[in-house]
């Protein structure tokens, strides 16, 4: 069965590794991710955005994740990514999600705390874990777009208070990463990660994990990151493989001919990330 993030996040925090959230956008993504994790014997999180949910349908999403958990025997959490309301979080929980993110980062601090609290209260009663978010993470993900100039770093004191009042199971804070690919290199504020992670018992979450240099990932984990989200790198690998296969043959009509290399390319991306995050053999 699917598990809550509390099956593996406490161990990640204690042993200084990070668990990957890999976003599921279709069946091939789901297969690539679970195959990589099986080879690495790693726990992982399927992240599903509201856009992806609309695309796949909630029943297929849950059924695919459950099939992956059954086939692999791995601890897998099915997690709503950037949930925008209490209602969508409850809809996911009722459908079988084992974890949800409530992203109230665009509200003021007080309102964000109040709304997140309500989600935590309802989710906890169902054994479902919750991620909260503070500060605004720049870039574009599905319908979510934040101008990078408007992205503001989380304030450590506010993050600590947010944790204490909401009791979330992990906390995403804006520390300099962005959704999508980077133009230059992201400037990560390790001091913010460290200050928050030292003061709360749950891990800090790093969003926008695609395109972050390996060394920056290692330093982030050392500072207290215990969950890292990756989506764009898999999208790029998938699309490049398909484009290549289509360019190589003008007559191909069988989708399996271009989806197989796409799936293999994503599997390689995920396997590399799992090793980098240090979650191999932690299942
Ligand atoms: O919530 C999802 C992640 O933050 C994905 O970010 O597409 O830049 O890897 P990314
Ligand atoms: Zn994100």
From TrEMBL:
<feature type="active site" description="Proton donor">
    <location>
        <position position="81"/>
    </location>
</feature>
<dbReference type="Pfam" id="PF01116">
    <property type="entry name" value="F_bP_aldolase"/>
</dbReference>
<feature type="binding site">
    <location>
        <position position="82"/>
    </location>
    <ligand>
        <name>Zn(2+) 1</name>
    </ligand>
</feature>
<feature type="binding site">
    <location>
        <position position="103"/>
    </location>
    <ligand>
        <name>Zn(2+) 2</name>
    </ligand>
</feature>
<dbReference type="InterPro" id="IPR011289">
    <property type="entry name" value="Fruc_bis_ald_class-2"/>
</dbReference>
<feature type="binding site">
    <location>
        <position position="133"/>
    </location>
    <ligand>
        <name>Zn(2+) 2</name>
    </ligand>
</feature>
<dbReference type="GO" id="GO:0030388">
    <property type="term" value="P:fructose 1,6-bisphosphate metabolic process"/>
</dbReference>
<feature type="binding site">
    <location>
        <begin position="208"/>
        <end position="210"/>
    </location>
    <ligand>
        <name>dihydroxyacetone phosphate</name>
    </ligand>
</feature>
<feature type="binding site">
    <location>
        <begin position="229"/>
        <end position="232"/>
    </location>
    <ligand>
        <name>dihydroxyacetone phosphate</name>
    </ligand>
</feature>
<keyword id="KW-0862">Zinc</keyword>
<keyword id="KW-0479">Metal-binding</keyword>
<dbReference type="InterPro" id="IPR050246">
    <property type="entry name" value="Class_II_FBP_aldolase"/>
</dbReference>
<protein>
    <submittedName>
        <fullName>Fructose-bisphosphate aldolase</fullName>
    </submittedName>
</protein>
<dbReference type="GO" id="GO:0006096">
    <property type="term" value="P:glycolytic process"/>
</dbReference>
<feature type="binding site">
    <location>
        <position position="180"/>
    </location>
    <ligand>
        <name>dihydroxyacetone phosphate</name>
    </ligand>
</feature>
<feature type="binding site">
    <location>
        <position position="179"/>
    </location>
    <ligand>
        <name>Zn(2+) 1</name>
    </ligand>
</feature>
<dbReference type="GO" id="GO:0008270">
    <property type="term" value="F:zinc ion binding"/>
</dbReference>
<keyword id="KW-0456">Lyase</keyword>
<dbReference type="InterPro" id="IPR000771">
    <property type="entry name" value="FBA_II"/>
</dbReference>
<dbReference type="InterPro" id="IPR013785">
    <property type="entry name" value="Aldolase_TIM"/>
</dbReference>
<feature type="binding site">
    <location>
        <position position="207"/>
    </location>
    <ligand>
        <name>Zn(2+) 1</name>
    </ligand>
</feature>
<dbReference type="GO" id="GO:0004332">
    <property type="term" value="F:fructose-bisphosphate aldolase activity"/>
</dbReference>
């Amino acid at each position: 069965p699917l598990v809550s993030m509390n099956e593996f996040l406490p161990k990640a925090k204690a042993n200084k590794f990070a668990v990957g959230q890999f976003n599921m956008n279709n069946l091939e993504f789901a297969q690539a991710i679970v195959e990589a994790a099986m080879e690495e014997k790693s726990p992982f999180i399927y992240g599903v955005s509201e856009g992806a949910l609309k695309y796949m349908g909630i029943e297929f999403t849950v059924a695919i994740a459950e099939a992956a958990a059954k086939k692999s025997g791995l601890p897998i959490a099915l997690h709503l990514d950037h949930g925008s309301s209490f209602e969508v979080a409850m809809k996911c929980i009722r459908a079988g999600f084992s974890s949800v993110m409530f992203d109230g980062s665009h509200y003021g601090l007080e309102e964000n705390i109040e709304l997140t609290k309500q989600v935590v209260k309802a989710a906890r009663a169902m054994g479902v874990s919750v991620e909260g978010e503070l500060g605004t993470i720049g870039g574009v993900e599905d319908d979510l777009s934040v101008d990078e100039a408007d992205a503001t770093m989380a304030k450590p004191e506010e993050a600590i208070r947010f944790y204490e009042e909401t009791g979330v199971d992990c906390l995403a804070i804006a520390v300099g990463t962005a959704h999508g690919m980077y133009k230059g290199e992201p400037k990560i504020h390790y001091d913010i990660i460290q200050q928050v992670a030292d003061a709360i018992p749950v891990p800090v979450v790093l969003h926008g994990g695609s395109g972050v240099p390996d060394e920056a990932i290692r330093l982030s984990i050392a500072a207290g990151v215990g969950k890292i989200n990756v989506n764009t790198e898999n999208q790029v690998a998938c699309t490049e493989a398909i484009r290549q296969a289509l360019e190589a043959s003008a007559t191909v009509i069988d989708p399996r001919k271009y989806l197989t290399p796409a799936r293999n390319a994503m599997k390689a991306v995920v396997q590399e990330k799992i090793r980098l995050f240090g979650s191999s053999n932690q299942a």
